[in-house]
Amino acid sequence: MSYELNAGGKQLAEVIEKVTWSGDSKQVARKLVFTVANKDSDRFLPKVNINEGDQVQFLEDGKLLFSGPVFDIEKSGSGNVVTYTAFDLMFYVTKSDINRVFDNETPEAITSWICSHLGIPFGAAASTGIPVYMPWLGKKAYDGIMAAYTAASRKNGKKYIPLIKNATQLYVIERGALCGVVLDGSYNLTEANYKTSLQNMVDRVLITDKDGNQIGVVEDTAAQQKYGVVQTVYKQEDGKDAQTEAKALLQTLEQTGSVGGSAMVAGGTLLGCGTKMQEEAGIEDSPELCFADFVRLGGAGTFNEEIAREFSEISGEAVDWLDDLGADFGDREPYFGVYQPLNVARNYSGNGGASAFITALSNELDNYIGKNAYIALNTRVEGLLTDENGAVVGVKATAADGSEVEYYAPATAICTGGYGGSEELLKQYNFDNILSTSPSFVTGDGYRWLEELGAAFTNMDFCTAYAGGIRTNPDNFFDFNYFDVTNGCLWVDVNGNRMANETGADSKVKSDSWSYADQNLVYTVFSKEMLNPEAGVFSGGAWGSVPEDFDTFMAQLIEQGLAFQADTIEELAEKAGLPVDAFTATITAYNEGCATGNDPFGRTEQLVPMENGPFYAVQTMPYVMITSGGPMMNVDCQVVRTDGSIIEGAYIAGEIVGMANVGGLNSIGGMGHGNCLTWGKHVAEVVAEKLGK
Question: What is the CATH T-level fold of the domain 261-366, as seen in this structure?
Answer without folding.
Answer: FAD/NAD(P)-binding domain (3.50.50)
